[in-house]
UniProtKB/TrEMBL annotation:
Family: Belongs to the CDP-alcohol phosphatidyltransferase class-I family.
Lineage, broadest ranks: Bacteria, Pseudomonadati, Campylobacterota, Epsilonproteobacteria, Campylobacterales
Protein's recorded name: CDP-alcohol phosphatidyltransferase
GO molecular function terms attached to this record: phosphotransferase activity, for other substituted phosphate groups
Membrane-traversing stretches: 12-31, 37-53, 74-92, 98-114, 160-177
Organism of derivation: Aliarcobacter thereius
Keyword match Plastid: no
GO biological process terms held by the UniProt record: phospholipid biosynthetic process
Keywords of this entry: Lipid biosynthesis, Lipid metabolism, Membrane, Phospholipid biosynthesis, Phospholipid metabolism, Transferase, Transmembrane, Transmembrane helix
One cellular component (GO) term of this entry: membrane
Domain of life (superkingdom): Bacteria
Compartment(s) of residence: Membrane
Topology of this chain in the membrane: Multi-pass membrane protein
Major localization listed first in the record, in broad terms: membrane
């Protein structure tokens, strides 16, 4: 069991927790594609819990490595960029293609995904093993996912329409790469 605390083992404890994040993202996508939104939401939130714990474990047991930094960002891309975008699409727009410009919707979703990917790549370029910045520059992708989840819940109330959801996706995509400073927890 020493491999769990070996910093350079790709299957150390911190990375295993990150792999659980990825697994939850995959299950969330499965449930989304089967119109099981509750299951998708549960796995998306579980991915968020694993994302919190992998970093804490890496710092507590000195397991932070370049591999772990890259792995965490790939997990974040899946669980906090792709899954929320798919969630919004399948929960709000799927089946309504005759009512909306699919070119416009596709452009918004592509913008959001590229914004999330760009944010994670920039984060990796600025990250150093074992160091945690006091502030994020731009909102982190998990916060972006939470904001999309909130706008989805508000959409369910009927207070906002599909166009506001699209506007909000563009706004969150912009904020991912903005100069706004957010304190690291």
């Amino acid at each position: 069991m020493n491999f769990l605390f070996n910093k350079y083992n790709h299957f150390n404890l911190a990375n295993i927790v990150t792999f659980f994040n990825i697994t939850c993202g995959i299950f969330a996508i499965y449930f989304l594609t089967h119109d099981e939104f509750l299951g998708a939401a549960l796995f998306a939130w579980l991915a968020g819990a694993f994302d919190i714990f992998d970093g804490k474990i890496a710092r507590k047991f000195n397991l932070s490595t370049e591999f772990g930094i890259q792995l965490d960002s790939y997990a974040d891309f899946l669980s906090f960029v792709i899954v929320p975008a798919m969630f919004i699409y399948f929960a709000i727009f799927d089946g309504k293609e005759q009512f909306f410009s699919m070119t416009f919707i596709a452009a918004v979703f592509v913008y959001y995904v590229i914004s999330g990917l760009r944010r994670l790549i920039q984060f990796n370029l600025n990250a150093n093993e074992g160091e945690v910045e006091k502030y994020f520059t731009g909102i982190p992708t998990p916060l972006g996912a939470i904001l999309l989840w909130i706008v989805y819940l508000v959409f369910l109330t009927g207070y906002i329409n599909e166009y506001f959801v699209l506007f909000f996706m563009v706004l969150v995509g912009y904020l991912l790469n903005s100069k706004i400073k957010i304190k690291h927890l």
